[in-house]
């Protein structure tokens, strides 16, 4: 998996979240990236420095640097650019949960739009002399394309049609990134990815929520009729795709990343029930009794399906993790990390963060 990288200092935003922490781990453990990584994270409920505790112990102060900061604070971002002089930004930081965006869209507008704008402004200011050797990579979602019927796929050329406050805020940020490329000549790439799953995912999202509810024998809430379809990708495969785009992607280009692995929610949850049953020595259908159909998510997109031929043919991307094996690995991770789960579920990590990290 060796891909040569010319970047000397990569600024990763949202590196304490689910995908960001997997990405930093992937860079240092799998790709053996030898430059510096600066992780900026506000540490919202979704950001947990514990996700990178071992990385900090092994690489902290030499290759890995952490700054608790809000991307909405321009002065803080400006200071960080001055201090570390990054030549690349990989922008993961965002409010990421659709249900939360329905109940409270404001933070989504601030972080996802204003935060992205601040980072772009820093790049414009600090990279002005030589845009070509620097790169801003924006991590986005397939949700910007809207929803599909029973057939068809999202292509990079599919018109944007976001339908939730979350996807509208991500679409806005994608447009800002493109605008900075076209207007100022900033070297940018964008990736639009489908649903990720794997270790360190906050248990508000479908897969970890279901696993943990099974372990506590709580109801498994399925929205609507359970026939909504998502395309699932193991998080490390997404990290690999981002790394490819960052280093080999064409300036100004967008790349779809997906699993080519469509599942409707009810089939996925049934399969997950069987995997967890085997791992916890229960009868095969044991957890299925917990499945409970609940009121649908407002504006619930029916089907997402990604066509990712472009990243495959141009950059050589392949998915490496089979879905059932990926789910088994994910279930194992949650079973073997009961302390992480307990701290996250009780909110104890939030008190620990407030005691140990100054805010800016
Ligand atoms: P996450 O919610 O797990 O993590 C988000 C991280 O951003 C957290 O560490 C949080 O503390 C940080 N953050 C939030 N607001 C911030 C702010 N104002 N300043 C600095 N840091 C802030 O999200 P995730 O699932 O890891 O998603 C990461 C990115 O990938 C997001 O941009 C999301 O839109 C995109 N994405 C996610 C998926 C998925 O399936 N999870 C799929 C496609 C794209
Ligand atoms: O497609 C990429 C997107 O995938 C990312 O951009 C988002 O950041 C990420 O959160 C994810 O969005 P979804 O809304 O698809 O993910 P979520 O895990 O919330 O829901 C997956 C599906 O499961 C969706 O159809 C809603 C359904 N669902 C979800 C939850 C939490 C349920 O039926 N019950 C639940 O309790």
**Helix count?**
13
Count the beta strands. 12
Which geometry do the CA atoms define?
Answer: globular
Largest sheet: 7 strands, parallel
Roughly how many Å apart are the termini?
A: 37 Å
H and E string: EHEHEHEHHEHEEHEEHEEHEHHHH
Protein model, in words:
This protein is α/β, with parallel strands linked by helices. The protein has helices spanning 18-31, 53-59, 74-84, 98-103, 106-126, 165-184, 206-215, 235-248, 265-279, 309-315, 323-336, 338-346, 348-356, and strands at residues 9-13, 36-41, 64-68, 88-91, 135-141, 188-193, 195-197, 220-223, 229-234, 253-257, 262-264, 291-294. The chain has a single domain (9-200, 233-261, 300-321, 348-356), classed as Rossmann fold, CATH 3.40.50.720. It has a seven-stranded parallel β-sheet with strand order 3-2-1-4-5-6-10, sandwiched between helices. The radius of gyration is 20 Å and the shape is globular. It starts with 8 loop residues before the first strand and ends with a helix. The structure holds nicotinamide-adenine-dinucleotide and 2'deoxy-thymidine-5'-diphospho-alpha-D-glucose. Residues 96-98, 141-143, 194-195, 205-206, 209, 221-223, 228, 230, 265, 297, 304 line the site of 2'deoxy-thymidine-5'-diphospho-alpha-D-glucose.
């Amino acid at each position: 998996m060796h891909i040569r990288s010319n970047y000397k200092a990569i600024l990763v935003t949202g590196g304490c979240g689910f995908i960001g922490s997997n990405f930093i781990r992937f860079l240092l453990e799998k790709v053996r990236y030898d430059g510096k990584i600066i992780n900026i994270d506000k540490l919202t409920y979704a950001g947990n420095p514990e996700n990178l505790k071992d990385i900090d112990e092994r690489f902290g102060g030499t290759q890995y640097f952490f700054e608790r900061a809000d991307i909405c604070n321009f002065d803080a971002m400006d200071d960080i650019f001055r201090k570390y002089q990054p030549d690349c930004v990989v922008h993961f930081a965002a409010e990421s949960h659709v249900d939360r965006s329905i109940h409270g869209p404001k933070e989504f507008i601030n972080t996802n739009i204003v935060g992205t704008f601040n980072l772009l402004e820093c790049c414009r200011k600090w990279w002005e002399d030589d845009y070509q050797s620097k790169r801003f990579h924006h991590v986005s979602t397939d949700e910007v394309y809207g929803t599909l019927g029973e057939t068809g796929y999202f292509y990079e050329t599919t018109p944007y049609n976001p339908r939730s406050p979350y996807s509208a805020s991500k679409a806005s940020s994608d447009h800002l990134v493109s605008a900075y490329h076209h207007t100022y000549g900033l070297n940018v790439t964008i990736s639009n990815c489908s649903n990720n799953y794997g270790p360190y995912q906050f248990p508000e999202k479908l897969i970890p929520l279901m696993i943990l509810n099974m372990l506590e024998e709580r109801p498994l809430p399925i929205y609507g009729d359970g026939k909504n379809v998502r395309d699932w990708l193991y998080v490390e495969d997404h990290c690999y795709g981002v790394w490819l785009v960052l280093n080999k992607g064409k300036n100004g280009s967008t790349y779809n990343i997906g699993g080519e692995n469509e599942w409707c929610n009810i089939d996925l949850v049934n399969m997950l029930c069987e995997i967890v049953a085997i791992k916890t020595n229960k009868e095969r259908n044991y957890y299925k009794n917990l499945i409970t159909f609940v009121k649908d998510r407002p504006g619930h997109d029916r089907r997402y399906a990604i066509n990712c031929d472009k990243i495959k043919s141009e950059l050589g991307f392949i998915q490496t993790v089979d879905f059932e094996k990926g789910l088994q690995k994910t279930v194992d991770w949650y079973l073997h990390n009961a302390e992480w789960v307990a701290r996250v579920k009780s909110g104890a990590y939030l008190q620990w963060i407030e005691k140990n990290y100054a805010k800016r």
